[in-house]
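=== Structure Prediction Worksheet ===
Name of assembly: unnamed complex
Input type: mixed (protein and possibly other molecules)
Chain count: two
Listed entries:
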Amino acid sequence: MTENTERNLTPAVTSEAGKIQDHFDLFQTDPYQDLFEYKRQFEGAHSKEKVAEVAEWTKSWDYREKNFDREALTINPAKACQPLGALFVAAGFEGTLPYSHGSQGCVAYFRTHLTRNFKEPFQAVSSSMTEDAAVFGGLNNMVDGLANSYTLYKPKMIALCTTCMAEVIGDDLGAYIQTSKNKGSIPEDFPVPFAHTPSFVGSHITGYDNMLKGILSCLTKDKKQETTNGKYNFNLGFDPYIGNIRELKRILQLFDLDYTILSDNADSFDSPNTGEFQMYNGLTTLEDAADSINGEGTFFFQKYTTPKTQEWIGKEWGQETYNFRPFGIKGTDEFLSKLSEISGKPVPQELVEERGRAVDAMTDSQAWIHGKRVALYGDPDHVFGLVNFLLELGAEPVHILVTNTNEAFEAELQAVLDASPYGQNSTIWGKKDLWHMRSLMFTEPVDLLIGNSYGKYLWRDTKTPLVRIGYPIFDRHHMHRYETLGYKGALNLHNWIINTILDELDRQTIIPAKTDISFDLIR
Amino acid sequence: MTTVDQNKELIKEVLDAYPEKAAKRRSKHLGVREEEKSDCGVKSNKKSVPGVMTTRGCAYAGAKGVVWGPVKDMIHISHGPVGCGYYSWSGRRNYYVGTTGVDTFGTMQFTSDFQERDIVFGGDKKLKKLIDELEILFPLSQGTTIESECPVGLIGDDIEAVARQKAEETKKPVVPVRCEGFRGVSQSLGHHIANDTVRDWVLPKADEYRKLPEGFESSPYDVNIIGDYNIGGDAWPSRMLLEAIGLRVISQFSGDGSFNETVMTPLAKLNLIHCYRSMNYICRHMEEKYGIGWLEYNFFGPTQIAKSLRKIAAQFDETIQANAEKVIAEYQKDMDAIVEQYRPRLEGKTVMMMVGGLRPRHVIPAFEDLGMKVIGTGYEFGHNDDYKRTADYVKEGTIIYDDVSGHEFEEFAKQLNPDLIAAGIKEKYVFQKMALPFRQMHSWDYSGPYHGYHGFAVFARDMDLAINNPTWSLIENPWAAK
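=== Predicted Assembly ===
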């Protein structure tokens, strides 16, 4: 037993303004460090030597093999569940209240998660089902829930998805909504698109697809005209960079194209502070969404997020769908060429100049990124755009990890990697998680990691600098307000990547009289 | 009109927006504190109204996120589909000391990531295999808890049988926690369920599992800290204060706690409980089973810290009582300096709170130490006994709201126009868009600690920087029509 005798148990409280010690400083002081040491004896902790030995082993090839032998256990996955994507896409439509049918805790989680990323309010309701609903079904909850949310929040549309509880007990959404209408909860003609979004199928991108299809099929019903409306529809998928929607609109305006963004949630996740809270900020009007069936065609930027919607549009609307990835230089080139083709106008000079500036910037910094080994993870389409850009820069995407992967995606990406000299050392790790990534990064180290905030644990453990690109980003502010799309977006991606590399070089060379030989003023 | 009458009137107006049935249900949860009444006049711990935005979570959140999650050297499996574990991953800032992924696992997410076939064929086999894989990859883990998500309880899996089998094979505790999200009306039942698993699956084997510190001898001063989740490090200044008055803290359950500390708890002479709501169950059990008394305390703000230290010391001998007086006196000067610095900047400012656990009442005196007034408060998932306790803390006319809806909270705030709102992340940006200063009271808005004397300094600083923040004055644009 270690006794308390030597410890300072009443360290003073600093009251001087600007010097108050919070968790960053306080727990590094001796009295608290001593407290931790003293407490350890009660913890039944393993010896420090043992912990160090096992920590070392977790970095080994032996550990990696055992780690990759896992069949049942998932650790730190890079995917969320369906309703998150369903709520995200619903928020882009005018006056739309996302509604989750099932247990109520799920909605608290979705709202929290989205709010933490965007630092914006996110409003959604639940039918708050409990044990009795598990036995008898959630009909009464839906009847009451729709009536209450319609009366209280005065939405123009309620977009309804499900939690796994409602899915397991098999609630019949279509029938329940109709019954609610019959009982007068909501008017007969009030739109309540719905989607089944069980968490045990797919991931948040699947939920996005299901809800988008649900909304479009509800709103476009019986709206098909003889002639087209001359507009093109655009969908960005589960893209957390709201700057991308704004950038896309700017580009389309430069081409003088008439368009409808299918789910314009830019203001839902980035609304101005006017001193008044506005509950609904979705910018796609219900009228435009309903008329999207009469468009000339629909563009998608996330092919693997939206397979069902695309198939359905092709079949039911008889409309052309186009898949583009306007991320990086060539991806944007292809997209703009297509816009030029459909608009019959040359690519505007303004965009040509932006291209020149982005390429200029990439050329200026290329020496610092060329040949750098990169690990990255995220959703299929997100990762695809980043890989394209890295290859353009001459960086080598070594470990490409996608938890919510699929075969078609892997084949398409593999072909891109095979065709590039910088993709020869790449491996696509489908269905793997961030604990697999940890092993990969210890056994086959890289220079840079690109991922969301959860990547910071990999940064801490492997000391690989992290560029935060993805969702969620909880520990850096305002990243989502920027664009990653188009040439301007390429410049942002480039800036984040290059300056992370340069920051890291400074961190590595900051010890006076030791490493600061290379602590260069000019790089 | 008195404040009581005015606020009663306000409640009526706010209820007008609901359909009749919902208005009737909600009316029971809104009230005004009247001095002559013994409680706050509101019903609580009832189902939330469907379709009305509640801030509540679920039983899983209470069991995994609150009670078990902070036990740092065990692996807590989110058993079911991927989402629950994903959204609650690293969300609560339960600080701990340890090598994550080696001997501690607090900021990791472990899930059985249910697929459709697991729903159809059941997940028990997968769970067994999963625990085997944990043993291979995390040999230093001190045990496992299985937090079941909604589908598990609906498909009839027998996680208890798996737990028994695996505990035997691994010689480590494996605790099945039936905290499916549809159970109960909020996270509160999850706390209770988690407490019950400690009672049923852990404490009966405490002697077998316990590793005593070398040369450990029982002392009359041994206490447990119960229900401090160490958010932003809260439990550490609390522990230090208890040690400073001569007590020996042999267990923290569960903030920065270890499994061994959980099984140390029966050796204590007294349970000191901070969050009554989430941990009273296990305290009551230990009182019954082991004769260990329990005492609620409040370490928010110097007034309550002094009061609590005296109350705790009164359970022990004169030496401890003298120590408590000494410690209180020693910090008086520091606390005076804090109050002197911040009180003039905060005097008379009004606050509306809405949080979970103990905070809707416990934090009130800390605000009052700074000259601030709490004009509204309520719990996400409180029970009647919480509101009874709250009656001692709030002043006449304080508006009380249980499981407040977004609509109610916003309308109350518009009418009462407080200088600060103290609630959770889902509310934060709603009110900031309304140009109302806000602090998160679940996560301390990424600050903390707020407990103890060290915590009060941080609390005072944070309330000041929220209210006296210059960006509030920029919100109105110079061209807005007046």
